[in-house]
Structure formats: structure tokens, C-alpha cells
Write a structure and sequence with these properties.
Elements lengths: L6 E4 L8 H5 L4 E4 L1 H16 L2 H7 L15 H7 L8 E5 L3 H8 L3 E6 L2 H10 L5 E4 L16 E6 L5 H7 L4 E9 L6 H8 L4 E7 L8 E7 L34
Parallel strand pairs: 3-4, 3-6, 4-5, 6-7
Antiparallel strand pairs: 1-2, 7-9, 8-9
């Protein structure tokens, strides 16, 4: 039988190592290392990602108040590395992602099938963002109303996701990506995209404004090569230790 050892979390004065003294202090909490690390992880979600304030406001924003897509945080961490300046985006389903793309210099065309949300987005979108409306069965085919190929295609609509994936065939530019949100709820739709020769990468985790884990999947063209915003890839994640390992070089050893 092993004895569970508590760690002590709080402002501990120098020399106050006696557990009996620490247990009497109101500003010190005894907890296991696992519980302490869990609290640190919760702080990253709360403060680093701004989860609590954004969820209380029911608005998808990061800790700095910038718009973020309603994708999982791991997916956002991945896509935010890239430079989207001048990239062409088509979305089935508009919203915070539309504002995210346009804020990063992309040219966006988005189709919406909710009249009230469409009118709201007309107030928020930028002058170079094209917003379409179709609340009928023609919704999946709206992509064909916008000529050319797209560097990014987003399938995050209310309904018709399987049909949208089918209509995306032949519209993705060489080296581009398709993003399917809630992919775990749409495995057949994911299969349609894989059948187009795209490489599926799943990003599972938490989302702002939601209380459960989910999966946002990115489907990469086999020549995917978006430029990055910073020279280093991967970039440091929110809450990461900003270290540069000595092992990351020839002959690096412990």
C-alpha cells in the first residue's frame, strides 16, 4: 500500500516546510500533484483561451477579444499558424469564422440558410466579404454561384453537410484545405472528403461556449503548403512553456 502524499498550493513563506504548520494556514491548500496540475490546466482554459468570459457572453472570442471560429481549440491552434492573406474561402454556414477569416486578410464567400442570422451577418461582415442566402434545397449548390477555386472550404452549416461535401469536389485549389466541424457526428460526410483524395486530420478537444469535447477535422490537399505567420512551426500553444530544447540539434543529448 502506498501512502498518498499531498502537495501544498499557496503562498508558502520561506522555511515553512513543516506540514503541521502548513495545514493551519488559511491561505494554503493541501492537494495531490494531479489536482494541482488540473487546476493549472483549468487556468489555461479559463485565462489563456478566455473560455469563461467568452462563454458567459455566448460569443466565440479568444482571451484578447478577437473573433475565433466555433471549432475546437486544438484546431484553432493549428490554423492560426498560417498566413491567410489573399486566400479565398468558401463557407457553408456563416458566423464568427467568417469574421475570423476576413480579419486575417482572406477573401470570403459564405452562404447562410437562417434568415435572421443572415441579416445579422450583413451588419458584421466586411465590404470584401460576399454573403449569400438560400434556405432551400439549393443551399449545397451555392458554391457554384461563386466562380473559381477556393483555398479553404468550410462545412459548418445547419443541415446538408453530406451534400455540401459532395458539391465541394473539384472546387478546392491545389494545396488547400477543407474544414468539417463536428466531424464525429458526420462520419459519412468525412468519408466523402477522404474519397476525394484528401488527408484527414482530426482535432478533438473543447470549444468555447460548449461543455463537452468535440472534433473539428481538417482535410488537406496532398500538396498543402500554406505559408506560416511565424518562421517556427509548430508555434507555441496557448499556455505552453516557451523553451527551445538542446536536443533539437545534431548531437543533442541529455
Amino acid at each position: 500500500m502506498t501512502t498518498r502524499r499531498n502537495s501544498y498550493w499557496g503562498r508558502i513563506p520561506e522555511g515553512a516546510a513543516d506540514p503541521r504548520e502548513l495545514e493551519r494556514r488559511p491561505d494554503v491548500i493541501a492537494m495531490s500533484r494531479g489536482e494541482m496540475y488540473l487546476a493549472a490546466c483549468s487556468a489555461i482554459l479559463r485565462d489563456g483561451h478566455g473560455f469563461v468570459s467568452a462563454t458567459d457572453a455566448d460569443v466565440p472570442r479568444d482571451a484578447e477579444g478577437r473573433w475565433i471560429p466555433l471549432f475546437t481549440y486544438p484546431c484553432i491552434e493549428y490554423i492560426r499558424q498560417f498566413d491567410f492573406s489573399g486566400k479565398r474561402v468558401f463557407e457553408w454556414g456563416s458566423g464568427a469564422s467568417t469574421l475570423f477569416w476576413q480579419d486575417r486578410g482572406a477573401r470570403v464567400a459564405s452562404v447562410e440558410n437562417d434568415r435572421r442570422w443572415y441579416e445579422r451577418m450583413l451588419e458584421l461582415k466586411g465590404p470584401d466579404t460576399q454573403l449569400l442566402f438560400d434556405d432551400g434545397d439549393g443551399f449545397p449548390r451555392a458554391i457554384h454561384e461563386v466562380p473559381g477555386e477556393f483555398d479553404i472550404i468550410v462545412i459548418d452549416s445547419a443541415g446538408y453537410r453530406y451534400d455540401c461535401a459532395q458539391e465541394s469536389a473539384g472546387r478546392l485549389a491545389t494545396g488547400g484545405m477543407v474544414i468539417l466541424d463536428n466531424a464525429e457526428w458526420h462520419p459519412r460526410t468525412a468519408g466523402v472528403l477522404r474519397d476525394q483524395g484528401l488527408i484527414q486530420v482530426d482535432f478533438s478537444g473543447f470549444k468555447v461556449t460548449e461543455f463537452h469535447a468535440s472534433t473539428t477535422s481538417v482535410f488537406l490537399h496532398r500538396d498543402f503548403a500554406f505559408p506560416t505567420r511565424e518562421p517556427m512551426q509548430p508555434a507555441y500553444a496557448v499556455g505552453a512553456k516557451r523553451l527551445m530544447s538542446e536536443w533539437d540539434q545534431p548531437g543533442g543529448r541529455r
